[in-house]
Every structure is written in structure tokens, then in C-alpha cells.
Amino acid sequence: PGWYGFGTAVNEYRAKHADGLARLQAIVHEWPFFATLISNIDMVLSKTDIAIASRYAELVEDEALRTAIFSRIRAEWQATLEAVSQITGAPELLSTNPLLARSIRNRFPYMEPLNHLQVELLRRFRSGNRHERTRRSIHLTINGVAAALRNSG
Q1: Hey, which of 39, 60, 104, 149 would disulfide with 66, CB 3.0 to 4.6 Å?
Q2: Cα distances (Å, whole numbers) of residue 48 to 24, 62, 125, 129
């Protein structure tokens, strides 16, 4: 995901610079590139449903591997949420863009069933159901999720 690594980078920067958070809070208002980066991370985080992501992680049969990788993803998601909130001072994601927040929130009820369907279709495909109908259905769910996210998916 586009936000992965940002939380860790911010935490490492803050660990090396006593005034790191204050610097980042100032830079977000002074440097358009950084402001745009934060805005994009804010938007992508708002489209992230970590509970749905965990459903995809369940497709990994090796439990130790699944747990090791997904726990890192979840921790980075949390660190990035906290970093964006601390830098922007915003109480929630997309606070500065309520229209986009509402648009994304309104699409989630349509996206969630597509995600669950896609997970089930992928599970079937991996277990040997290689029928053309299954393959086509997977492609349709990919297109549906990408359309709902309004990006490449």
C-alpha cells in the first residue's frame, strides 16, 4: 500500500531529532510536496480497511508466515495513522476534505461484499477450481473494487 513505511520513517526521524515532530508539523505547511504527500497518505489510509485486509491475509495457509507478515502490516498501518494524525493535528482522516471522506464512506458498503466475494473466489481458485467462470469472476471483482476505490485497486 502507498502508506506502508511512512509511520516507521516518521518514528525514526523523530527518534533522531528531538524537535522532529515540530519540524514535520511546520514543513507540512511550508513545503507543498510534503503537504501533498501527507494528503495522499491521508486519502489512501481512508480507503484502507484493515479488517478486510486481514481476510486476504487468511489466504496464506502457513499460519506462522501469515501472522509474521500481517502483524507487520497492521503495526505499520497503526504507526502511519498515528504519524499522520500527529503531523496534521487532525482528529480523523480526511478532516480537511469532508466531501471526499463522505464519498469514500458511502462506497464502503458496496465494496465490502466485493472484497469478501473476491477472497472466497481466490480461495476456490487456489484450491483447484480453475474454471473460466471462476477466473472471470475474480477479474470482475478486481474491476469492481478498483472502480469503488477510484484508483487502480
Answers
A1: 60
A2: 24, 24, 25, 29
Among 140, 142, 61, CA closest to 132: 140
Choosing from 81, 96, 111, the residue where a domain stops is 96
- Domain containing residue 91: 1-96
Question: Going by C-beta distance under 8 Å and a sequence separation of 6 or more, which residues neighbour residue 91?
Answer: 85
N-to-C CA span, the chain: 10
Helix, strand, coil tally for the chain in percent (to 5):
75, 0, 25
How many structural domains are present in the chain?
2
User: pLDDT tens for residues 28-74?
Assistant: 999 999 999 999 999 999 999 999 999 999 999 999 999 999 999 99
Tell me the DSSP string of 47-64: T--HHHHHHHHTT---HH
Please state, as a whole number, how many other Cβ atoms lie within 10 Å of the Cβ of residue 31: 11
Looking at the structure, tell me whether residues 52 and 111 fall in a common domain: no
